[in-house]
Design a protein that fits this description.
10 strands, alpha/beta, two-stranded antiparallel ribbon, 327 residues, 13% strand, 10 helices, TIM Barrel
Length: 327
């Protein structure tokens, strides 16, 4: 993974398509993000060299992402096939008959003919309906019976129909991946599993398992994460303050963030750092002009504390909550 360049850093997926190793994450609290911020960030990212944008229906900003991509295409900056867009199927849309209409709604929002990757965002189904976070009058979550294999078959049909080039999953543990991989009549394997992954949570066991099955790991929160106590474990130390990452950064004249990102891409893990700050968007992409030594890679690997920032404990009683198991 050391011969990567800003122009050429695509990984081959198990279905023959290719995914850029660095993408822009686009999640931000919709209540606190001014309109147009996301569109602006995507345009800055494309100008900086990003060709992979990670979004989701549930982020409430896909219309801005689509607008930014289309604007850059109109400017002649790139062609549609140069951009890799990942969309996600939300928990309330797992029943097989809802999968295609949900993806079609995403395409309509983006005003694009297809997405490059469509993934099941979480293995936990919620009660279907217009409410994204369904609860009863007592504030109890309304779950729905999960049949991940049936949902997967509906994704396969979307790929066959050309609505998405590739299909994958997110936040699946080994058992849940095996359920899909061992499904009778499997047509398309997941190309990727998007999970939390950074030097404090290196995910080496899941990474090994996915490598064996030619499934690419996409690491979210590769720089740690926002300190939003409503869904993040804020008791864990901020990753970017880590002395080892900072010391290695000084050697290369890079930031701790750039070192953390470089660590993952050298392991073949795709990174999708989210930033709406123009300086940091550019900085996060400037990781192709240095290379960590084997010793430095080992030092960073040794920082692993097996701690999740994104625990999603509010759903830990869901029968398919993925984080009870070791990996």
């Amino acid at each position: 993974m050391n011969n990567l360049s800003a122009e050429n850093h695509r990984l081959m997926l198990n279905d023959g398509n290719r995914m850029p190793l660095v993408g822009l994450g686009t999640y931000a609290d919709p209540k606190q993000t001014p309109k147009g911020t996301c569109a602006q960030a995507v345009k800055i990212a494309i100008d900086a060299g990003y060709r992979h944008i990670d979004g989701a229906y549930v982020y409430y900003n896909e219309h801005e992402v689509g607008e930014a991509i289309r604007e850059k295409i109109t400017e002649g900056k790139l062609k549609r096939e140069d951009i890799f867009y990942c969309g996600k199927l939300w928990n309330t849309c797992h029943p097989p008959d809802l999968v295609r209409p949900t993806l079609e709604r995403t395409l309509k929002t983006l005003q694009l003919d297809y997405v490059d990757l469509y993934i099941i965002e979480l293995p936990m189904a919620f009660k279907p309906g217009e409410v994204i976070y369904p609860m009863d009058e007592n504030g109890k979550w309304l779950y729905h019976e999960t049949d991940l294999c049936a949902t997967w078959e509906a994704l396969e049909a979307c790929k066959d129909a050309g609505l998405t080039k590739s299909i994958g999953v997110s936040n699946f543990n080994r058992r849940q991946l095996e359920m899909i991989l061992n499904k009778p009549g499997l047509k398309h394997k997941p190309v990727s599993n998007q999970i939390e992954c950074h030097p404090y949570f290196t995910q080496s066991k899941l990474l090994d398992f996915c490598r064996q099955h030619k499934i690419v790991l996409v690491g979210y929160s590769p720089l740690g994460t926002s300190r939003d106590a409503s869904w993040v474990n804020v008791s864990s130390p901020p990753l970017l303050d880590d002395p080892v990452l900072n010391a290695i950064g000084e050697k290369y004249n890079k930031t701790a963030a750039q070192v953390a990102l470089r660590f993952n891409i050298q392991r073949g893990v795709v990174v999708i750092p989210k930033s709406f700050n123009p300086e940091r968007i550019r900085e996060n992409f400037q990781i192709f002009d240095f290379c960590l030594t084997e010793k430095e890679m080992d030092e960073i690997e040794a920082l692993n504390k097996n701690i999740r920032y994104v625990e999603l404990l509010m759903w830990k009683d869901h029968p398919e909550y993925p984080f009870h198991e070791e990996y």
